[in-house]
Amino acid sequence: MPETSEKDLSGLAETLLIPLYVRAMESMRADALIKDEKAVELVAQRSLPFSRVKRIPLGEANQLVIILRNREFDTMRGIFWRATQKR
Length: 87
Hints:
By secondary structure, the chain is mostly helical. The chain has one domain (13-85). It has five helices and no strands.
């Protein structure tokens, strides 16, 4: 997979940063449900506008829904990837 550059993400809609930010924050927990070092790296770069995302009042339940949805997407992506690589 090619590396993601800052230019590639500059036009990203702010609402798409919410799952990325939640994913990164969850990844830093010792008891994380998902681990995504790339998300942590992207948030740490501080080149994306996370200041507004940090101010969005997301309760624990909303964060959990985002995390579980992301985990399900990861599972489905893996299934799809393995299925298409066998051809």
